[in-house]
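Re: the request from the purification team.
They wanted to know what the chain is likely to look like in 3D before they choose a buffer screen. I agreed to run a prediction and write the result into the notebook, where they can find it.
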Amino acid sequence: MSNPFQATICPVIMAGGGGTRLWPLSRSGHPKQFLAPSGGDRSLFQNSVVRLHGLAGGGWQLTPPVVITNEDYRFMVLDQLAASGAADGAIVLEPLGRNTAPALTLAALHAQGPGADPVMVVCPADHGISDVPAMTSALRVAVEQAATGSVVVLGVPASRPETGYGYIRSAPAPDGARQVLQFVEKPDLPTAERYVASGEFHWNSGIFVLKASTWLAALEAFRPDIAAATRASWDARTTDAGFVRPGKEQFAKVPSESIDYAVMEKCAGSPFDIRMVPLDAGWSDLGAWDAVWQTRPHDDAGNAFEGDAVLHTSRNTLVHATSRLVAVIGMDDAVVVETPDAVLVMKRDCSQDVKEVVAGLTARDRAEPLLPRKVHRPWGWYDSIDSGSRFQVKRIMVKPGASLSLQMHHHRAEHWIVVSGTAKVTRGDDTFLLAENESTYIPMGHKHRLSNPGKVPLEIIEVQSGGYLGEDDIVRFDDTYGRK
């Protein structure tokens, strides 16, 4: 496609959501955008990065992506960006959750920079696309329209009456584009049926394309309070270890609002030209397990599965097995999700109710909504494979060249056994190497550190013993990753 405007494209990826409706696979500490709920080797976030990188070429200049996320996800974003070939991407950390309008404002302020005003292609990190070339084509059309100052939203053909999606009503414009006439939020079923029958409505994909200056001008016109408070936070930003941190005190004063409510719904009929480009690319917001079932390949009985699963006399059922064999017999229109520490069984049409279960577990201070059994850390991961009243057993992986913090525990001792790789151990004043099948003992109250000096992953088994085994019994003296 030609590029008469010579626009610079800045990919913006929103990666701060919690994804509670895909529990138990998705947890608040490791949400769905960093997982692959529909299968494959790449996470939803990585797929988003790779898809947007496909906009390069054809005369368009593509900047490194800007990722808007939060403190808890910063190292997952850093690792997955690097694995996606985008290690130079910018990571902006929201100090607090304030919805998508302030998040996009932070991205626009970062993208503008000295003398820059790129076209931002703004995508959620947790959506699925089955036809990437079709999406790339739609985005290129949207970029050309946005380069002239238009606000552009991608609309998905409404193939069925969905009550969980927002809708866009549009009409052909004289220049061949589609002019947005109205945004409608999540209608009831009879209204959704009328929308689909009329042919005038598309689903709102949540993918927006517009210049940084256009967003900031529209926000200033419609929500000057958000614009001013977010800019004050941006002006107070700091940078460390590649992370951009807006001022927390200032950001706490930013009103919480979505992109749609703050700006998009107000653009129709205003001086801001708002267009829609159809997106027919197998889009799904993957917002619930029913949506995952719809995106998966089905067998002759309509069943879909991931992992080690056996289905017998079952129809239209989704099974997601993570760590063991799952057998399902005589189930119709069901969802079964197995993880090492929790199992979900429900009717598919109850998928939206998962968030109520998560809320109930959270109210009871259960750990299951927060983290999976296998917890990712900037240095690797640990998997809590067994525990009792005075012991806990963990399988630990340390990435090549990585190191845990120099630390100490008041209430537990630790035994380390090397399973594979080479461990560099600091224990008190001593530093030594351990090879495969060798072990060591860390007494309670001793400073210690575990590092991987090798070029292959290090795996150890750690046996903790003591009166208290919580993760908060860690006193850090030095940490490569700036954790306290």
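For the purification team: The radius of gyration is 25 Å.
Please add any questions underneath this entry.
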